């Protein structure tokens, strides 16, 4: 009975919503929990067409990566994927900004690169190479793409919804060459709050996926894009169709995030309040110091007007200087 009551509360929590919010971890994995969906998203985001399109894709959720450097260091990728032509992806969904976020993205990319290098050297194609060919390829890297979907405004994207980062030569850029030093290691940063296109303005597949990611959790009616792949992705996060256990997991994720958001907001308010108090106290101190300084200056002026001796004036100035230290 208690379990049924709890489940009723959870169902009530999601009442009025047609779909779960896919920016939260559980629904995010359900939303992209299909090879065709993930291929469509990646092909769109990478602008791959024709023979360049990803045709086969393997992927894992919450793939733990561990290295000893020199002590054990591990992290977990939200989605770790590999295409049939040996391209490796890390796809991360982020709800909030934090200190050293860019450093974190670089660190994850480094782990992705090392993991991809290991996977490449274990592949049947690589193992079939001769000894000298393997030695020649000692430092060869596979193509890696780090994708960060940020549900917060990241200033580093320059106000754009999608930004692409690579390693560039500063000298080459100065000469007008915008080609990266190597195309093998790249980042795609999605600034979701900056994606503001309305449903009737969507053109490319990645725009449709981003629209659904941003709006599915808050919209009862979503556009029909005329392709079953979008429908099936939404079907997996439809509130009326998901199992009770999954709803419980989604609710816990949302409540945990709400608590984090509350604490962040509270911290900001406290910081502002403390800043105002410090500012007022500093102002009072400065006011007292300035008043004291002005008082001393006035006192010296009075001494001068009374025609006191140079010796007494010098003594007054010395006292004033000591007071101001």
Mean pLDDT: 84
Q: Report strand %.
A: 15-25%
Biggest β-sheet description: 6 strands, mixed
Structural class: alpha/beta
What percentage of residues falls in helices of 4 or more residues?
40-55%
* Radius of gyration over all CA atoms, rounded: 30 Å
N to C succession of SSEs:
HHHEEEHHHEEHEHHHH
Straight-line N-to-C gap: 74 Å
Shape: globular
Unreliable parts: 302-309
Q: What is the number of strand segments? A: 6
Total number of helical segments? 11
Widest sheet, order of strands: 1-2-3-4-6-5
Which terms would index this structure?
6-stranded mixed sheet, 50% helix, globular
Question: Can you offer a commentary on this structure?
Answer:
By secondary structure, this protein is an alpha/beta fold. The protein has helices at about 1-15, 25-30, 35-45, 100-120, 125, 130-135, 170-175, 205-215, 230-235, 245-305, 310-325; strands at about 55-70, 70-85, 85-95, 145-150, 160-165, 185-190. Helices cover about 50% and strands about 15% of the residues. Strands 1-2-3-4-6-5 form a six-stranded mixed β-sheet, with helices on both faces. A hairpin with a 3-residue loop joins strand 2 (about 70-85) and strand 3. The radius of gyration is 30 Å and the shape is globular. The N and C termini lie far apart (about 75 Å). Mean pLDDT is about 85; it is low at about 300-310.
Give me the secondary-structure topology.
Elements: H1 2-13, H2 25-31, H3 35-45, E1 57-68, E2 72-83, E3 87-94, H4 101-122, H5 124-127, H6 131-136, E4 143-150, E5 162-165, H7 170-174, E6 185-191, H8 205-215, H9 228-235, H10 244-305, H11 310-324
Parallel strand pairs: 3-4, 4-6
Antiparallel strand pairs: 1-2, 2-3, 5-6
Helix pairs in contact: 1-10, 3-8, 10-11
């Amino acid at each position: 009975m208690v379990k049924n009551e709890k489940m009723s509360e959870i169902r009530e929590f999601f009442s009025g919503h047609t779909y779960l919010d896919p920016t939260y971890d559980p629904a995010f994995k359900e939303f992209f929990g299909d090879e065709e969906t993930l291929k469509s998203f990646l092909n769109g985001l990478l602008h791959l067409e024709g023979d360049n399109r990803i045709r086969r894709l393997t992927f894992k959720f919450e793939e733990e990566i561990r290295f000893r450097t020199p002590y054990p260091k591990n992290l977990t990728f939200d989605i770790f994927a590999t295409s049939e032509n040996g391209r490796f992806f890390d796809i991360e969904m982020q709800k909030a900004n934090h200190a050293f976020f860019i450093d974190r993205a670089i660190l994850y990319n480094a782990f992705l690169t090392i993991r991809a290098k290991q996977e490449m050297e274990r592949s049947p194609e690589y193992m079939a190479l001769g000894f000298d060919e393997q030695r020649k390829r000692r430092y060869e890297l596979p193509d890696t793409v780090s994708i960060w979907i940020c549900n917060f405004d990241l200033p580093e994207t320059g106000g754009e919804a999608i930004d692409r980062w690579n390693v560039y030569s500063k000298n080459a850029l100065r000469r007008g060459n915008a080609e990266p030093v190597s195309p093998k290691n790249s980042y795609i940063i999605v600034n979701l709050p900056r994606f503001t296109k309305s449903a009737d303005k969507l053109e490319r597949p990645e725009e449709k996926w981003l629209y659904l990611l941003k709006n599915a959790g808050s919209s009862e009616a979503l556009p029909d894009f005329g392709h079953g792949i979008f429908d099936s992705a939404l079907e997996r996060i439809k509130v009326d169709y998901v199992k009770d256990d999954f709803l419980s997991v989604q609710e816990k994720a949302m409540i945990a995030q709400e608590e984090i958001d509350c604490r962040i907001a509270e911290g900001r308010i406290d910081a502002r309040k403390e800043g105002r108090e410090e500012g007022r106290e500093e102002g009072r101190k400065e006011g007292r110091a300035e008043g004291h300084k002005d008082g001393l200056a006035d006192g010296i002026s009075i001494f001068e007007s009374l025609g006191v001796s140079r010796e007494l004036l010098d003594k007054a100035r010395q006292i004033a200087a000591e007071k101001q230290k």
